[in-house]
Amino acid sequence: MTKSIEPGSIFSVNVSADEKIYGRILFDVDDFLDKSKNKDLKNYFDVFKKCVLIETFGIVSKGFDVSYLKNVAVKSSFIPVDTISDGEEWELTNMLIPVSVGYITFPEVLRFVDGKIYFCVGEVSIPTSFDEVFRDQSGVYPSFGSGYWEIVATLDYAGRKDLIEDEDDLMGRYFKDSDLRESPELRKEIYDAINEDPGMSYEQLALKHGFNFNKKMDL
Q1: Which stretch of DSSP H or E encloses residue 38?
Q2: Less packed terminus of the chain by CB within 10 Å, N or C?
Q3: Is this prediction's pTM over 0.90?
Q4: Between vectors from CA 85 to CA 46 and to CA 78, what angle results, nearest 5°?
Q5: C-alpha dist (Å) from residue 50 to 37, 216, 217
Q6: Can you tell me whether residue 136 is helix, strand or coil?
Q7: What are the tens digits of pLDDT across the range 90-123?
Q8: Distance of alpha carbon 101 from its chain centroid, rounded?
Q9: Is the Cβ–Cβ distance between 111 and 139 less than 8 Å?
């Protein structure tokens, strides 16, 4: 029987002959869009169709333990759902650990839509006074890869550089081009400009801008 990929699903990634790293599915973009009927393409979910949001845990081991949930390496990053459903290294386990709505966070980016630069995070898109030059200099766009950098970042966090094949792939900030949270000073500048609190949870920010994230997740 095919295992179901859904929020809360624990997955593993083979990183050596007998060791794995583990992570959890936090959010399914297509499922959310189907439920929410969101047609506002100023947000970035159209870019992330057929993707899931994941977190990984900073432990390399032969088996999973629930204590890993307290040791998050990659907090939230988008990867194609096919990475897990079709991959040889990535596998779903039989474990499901529910994710609370208040726990979920999303990558933060700048996006050019209809002649304006928007600050985008999850379902929220806020118009800014920035121009394309600023957006290009910041270099933070809605983008995703194959899951490779999530593996490298997790191994680095776990102190297992010996399992990273190419030492040139080691970085200080693995997602600086796809998430403003990797650049605190730039993020503060943007939050100040849009008059928002960077410490506010995503759930609170979404509600402030008219999106009842909690209700939609319960549909």
Answers
A1: none
A2: N
A3: yes
A4: 35
A5: 16, 18, 17
A6: helix
A7: 999 999 999 998 899 999 999 998 889 999 999 9
A8: 14
A9: no
Nearest to 173 by CA among 188, 183, 159: 183
Q: How far apart are CA 192 and CA 190, in angstroms?
A: 5
Helix (H, G, I), strand (E, B) or coil at 81: helix
Report yes or no: 115 and 136 within 8 Å, Cβ to Cβ.
no
Separation CA 116–CA 129 (nearest Å): 8
| Contact predicate 20/13, CB 8 Å | yes
State the Cα–Cα distance between residues 41 and 111, nearest whole angstrom.
Answer: 11
Q: Which two tokens stand for residue 93?
A: 């386990």
Provide the token pair at 134.
């600023």
Residues contacting 202, CB < 8 A, separation 6+:
104, 105, 106, 121, 122, 124, 213
For the record, the structure tokens of 10 come out as 């624990």
Tokens at 199, concatenated: 């410490």
